[in-house]
């Protein structure tokens, strides 16, 4: 079985995919651009991809293709319908990065709430040394207890966010995201999430229903001291509308780990703002999460090869 990993470089350093070579003739590429893609997939049976797009043309290039293994949970870079039509199995890896993402979400929340970076700067700039008192309470912060967090998306990550929020004593609101009018127990509308939450955190996939879901209409409902967090997918929040809300100080801040275009252009106007915290799509990427991901890829290919039940099939 010929196996190719098209963008193994996305997994970073500190982990190895060598074990996958036990399953067949295994070749890796740090990254693959559109010009290189056809040659690299035309005679393989298994494609592993994190973010390299595999559409109709790519599927047609690969005459021996049997399995597309997505090195992620999200699979919006794969033409799922055409793969299904051609009888090609598509597997993803679920739940591998839950702890890492949740840890990042709360690091954002504590960044905004506890003002640690501002206090660190003041200490190193000599302001604490000049203080009249033992302390320097220049920036106000508060307990998370009784703060309200709105969770949009209640899968494994959303559930873990709630667990940690509960331990802080936060009030938790769970969003009803689907387009139906049906009542869902213990869920509230997006309007209520945006009007009542101090922190809003997004954990939904990017698809036709969620693309550009959060625009100025929702952002304008937020409390002036509220913060919105996105560790899900770029494209869910309208970046232009987010910029307007931030620069006009209509909301306190935002923390985003994902953007519409990745990597973004260096002149992205969000980069000029002090009230937005931006990380380079790393929330998923703790060492343990990446080890979990590699294990999941290995198990997916192994199960496919043996003809076992495929628990991670996306259709």
SSE topology:
Layout: E1 2-5, E2 25-28, H1 34-41, E3 46-49, H2 56-61, E4 67-70, H3 80-85, E5 89-91, H4 98-114, H5 116-124, E6 148-152, H6 156-168, E7 171-174, H7 190-196, E8 199-202, H8 216-219, E9 227-230, H9 239-247, E10 253-256, E11 276-278, H10 287-306
Parallel strand pairs: 1-2, 1-3, 3-4, 4-5, 6-7, 6-8, 8-9, 9-10, 10-11
Largest sheet: 6 strands, parallel
Give me the count of strands: 11
What level of helicity do the residues show? 25-40%
CATH superfamily of the largest domain: NAD(P)-binding Rossmann-like Domain
Order of helices and strands: EEHEHEHEHHEHEHEHEHEEH
- The helix tally amounts to 10
Assign the CATH architecture of the largest domain. 3-Layer(aba) Sandwich
Indicate the CATH class of the largest domain.
Alpha Beta
Report on the structure:
By secondary structure, the protein is of the alpha/beta class. The protein has 2 domains: 2-94 and 287-306, Rossmann fold, CATH 3.40.50.720; 97-278, 3-Layer(aba) Sandwich (Rossmann fold), CATH 3.40.50. It has helices at 34-41, 56-61, 80-85, 98-114, 116-124, 156-168, 190-196, 216-219, 239-247, 287-306; strands at 2-5, 25-28, 46-49, 67-70, 89-91, 148-152, 171-174, 199-202, 227-230, 253-256, 276-278. The strands form 2 sheets. Strands 7-6-8-9-10-11 form a 6-stranded parallel sheet, sandwiched between helices. A 5-stranded parallel sheet has the order 2-1-3-4-5. Strand 4, helix 3 and strand 5 form a beta-alpha-beta unit. Helix 4 (98-114) packs across helix 6 (156-168). The chain is elongated. The mean pLDDT is 96.
């Amino acid at each position: 079985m010929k196996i190719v990993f098209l963008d193994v470089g996305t997994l970073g350093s500190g982990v190895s995919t060598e074990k996958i070579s036990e399953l067949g003739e295994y070749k890796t590429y740090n990254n693959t651009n559109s010009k290189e893609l056809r040659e690299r997939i035309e005679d393989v049976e298994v494609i592993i991809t994190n973010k390299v797009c595999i559409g109709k043309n790519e599927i047609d290039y690969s005459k021996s293709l049997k399995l597309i293994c997505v090195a992620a949970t999200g699979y919006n870079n794969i033409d799922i319908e055409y793969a299904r039509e051609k009888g090609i199995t598509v597997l993803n890896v679920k739940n591998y990065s839950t702890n890492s993402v949740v840890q990042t979400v709360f690091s954002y929340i504590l960044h905004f709430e506890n003002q640690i970076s501002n206090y660190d700067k003041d200490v190193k700039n000599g302001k604490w040394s000049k203080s009249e008192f033992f302390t320097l309470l220049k920036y106000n912060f508060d307990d998370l207890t009784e703060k309200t967090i709105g969770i949009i998306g209640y899968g494994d990550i959303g559930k873990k966010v709630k667990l940690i929020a509960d331990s802080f004593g936060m009030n938790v609101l769970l969003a009803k995201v689907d387009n139906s009018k049906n009542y869902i127990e213990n869920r509230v509308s997006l309007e209520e999430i945006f009007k009542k939450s101090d922190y809003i955190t997004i954990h939904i996939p990017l698809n036709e229903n969620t693309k550009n879901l959060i625009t100025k209409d929702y952002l304008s409902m937020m409390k002036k001291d509220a913060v919105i967090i996105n560790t899900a997918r770029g494209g869910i929040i309208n970046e232009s509308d987010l910029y307007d809300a931030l620069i006009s100080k209509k909301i306190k801040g935002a923390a985003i780990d994902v953007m519409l275009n990745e990597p973004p252009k260096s002149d992205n106007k969000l980069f000029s703002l002090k009230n937005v915290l931006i990380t380079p799509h790393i929330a998923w990427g703790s060492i343990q999460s990446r080890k979990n991901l590699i294990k999941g890829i290995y198990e997916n290919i192994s199960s496919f090869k043996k003809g076992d039940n495929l628990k991670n099939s996306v259709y």
